Amino acid sequence: MGALTGDKTPSAEDVAWFHIDEPSTVGAARRAATTLASRLGLSDARAAEVGIAVTEVATNLVKHARDGTLLLRAVRWSGVGAVEFVACDHGPGVANLVLSGRDGQSTTGTLGIGLGAIARLSSSYDAHSVPGLGTVLAATFWGRDHPAAPLVDTAGVTRPMTGETVCGDAYAVRQTANGVLGLLCDGLGHGPLAGAAAAEAVRLFLHTPPAGPAEMLRHLHAGLRATRGLAAGIVEMDIAARVTRFAGLGNVTAALVRDQSRRGMMTHAGIVGHGARRIAEFDYELAPRTLVVLHTDGMTDKWDFGRYRALADHGALVIAATLFRDAAVRRDDAAVLVAKGP
Q1: Which of 60, 106, 124, 175 is the most buried (most CB within 10 A)?
Q2: What's the whole-model pTM score?
Q3: Measured distance CA(258)–CA(323) in Å, rounded
Q4: Alpha-carbon distance 132 to 42, whole Å?
Q5: Which one of 121, 142, 163 terminates a domain?
Q6: Which domain holds residue 33?
Q7: Which helix (H) or strand (E) holds 117?
Q8: How many alpha carbons fall within 13 Å on the CB side of residue 270?
């Protein structure tokens, strides 16, 4: 399950993951992308451009990358749809993405070929690479102009565990007058019942009058008694007050990241919907250029932001996908949510 959001920010649905390891997977990803573009209402010409871009990036993954994956997403905003993809690999990386993106530039062993075309065709484009660690590239294709970016840049990535088609982890985002509210949750177990619990948590979060994280978590706790329950964290980034507020219950990791330093945020033991001895809210100073990172236990907490040169300069989606690439495990559902304050 991908993001569901309020009216002031786009919603993103993680449609399909592709392991790009041979030429046949390039065609499968292209066909899925063009079909999605048509379903979202993009013109035939725009759908063809989406297909060109997906073909370019997937072909590069086959030729030059190791363990390449492509995530295809559907983005919706005020009734308008867009196709988005995220391409990730574990090497060899690109020393200079700006140079590699210029027409006529390609270097053996890099993903430089085709980057210029993808940047030109897409509505928005972002890429980060570290030699020896790999590359993450994200591109979005709208059919027409879309609203300006919200105050807080947020993005998440989800993936079901190997062998499952339904992800029991989910996230949701609500833009507020002063910042953003975000939910990350992990339905107990796996499969449809875990997914149903997460979907209900998202629905309650989005349709409850906005309040502080602890109050909203209590509302979820009361409303999820008929489900198998879940672990969850709710965060509020209040840009006006320069404070981050967080309430968590169960095994959800929450951290503030700034200048490559990381500070964990407090959660309590329990199960949302079934057992909660204490639901408490904690306040943290929100310095400029601070990132909030939430993730489920489908990702290890061993990630080190200091490994990634200048990653904080990129958008929330590339940041989330980079951490997900290196920390997510395939034997569990996994989800990460990143919020990037100004």
Answers
A1: 60
A2: 0.91
A3: 15
A4: 37
A5: 142
A6: 3-142
A7: helix 115-121
A8: 19
- CB-CB neighbours of 48 under 10 Å: 14
Distance separating alpha carbons of residues 281 and 181, to the nearest angstrom: 14
Are the C-beta atoms of 335 and 169 separated by less than 8 Å?
yes
Q: Judge if 134 and 217 occupy the same domain.
A: no
Asked if 167 and 115 sit in the same domain, the reply is no
Full pLDDT tens readout for the chain, 342 residues: 444 444 456 689 999 999 998 999 999 999 999 999 999 999 999 999 999 999 999 998 998 888 899 999 999 887 889 999 999 998 777 655 654 544 444 444 334 446 788 989 999 999 999 888 899 999 999 987 676 677 889 999 999 999 889 999 999 999 888 899 999 999 999 999 999 999 999 999 999 998 999 999 999 999 999 999 999 999 999 999 999 999 999 999 999 999 888 999 999 999 999 988 899 999 999 999 999 999 999 999 989 998 898 899 999 999 999 999 999 988 899 999 999 988
DSSP code string of 146-192? -PPPPSSEEEEEEEPPTT-SS-SEEEEEEE-SSEEEEEEEEESSSHH
Residue 324 domain flag: yes
128: Cα separation from own chain's centroid: 15
Question: What CATH number is attached to the domain comprising 310?
Answer: 3.60.40.10
What's the rounded Cα separation, in Å, for the pair 223 and 124? 38
* 332/190 same-domain check: yes
- Whole-angstrom distance, CA of residue 337 vs CA of residue 6: 16
Q: Please indicate, yes or no, whether residues 218 and 121 belong to a single structural domain of this protein.
A: no
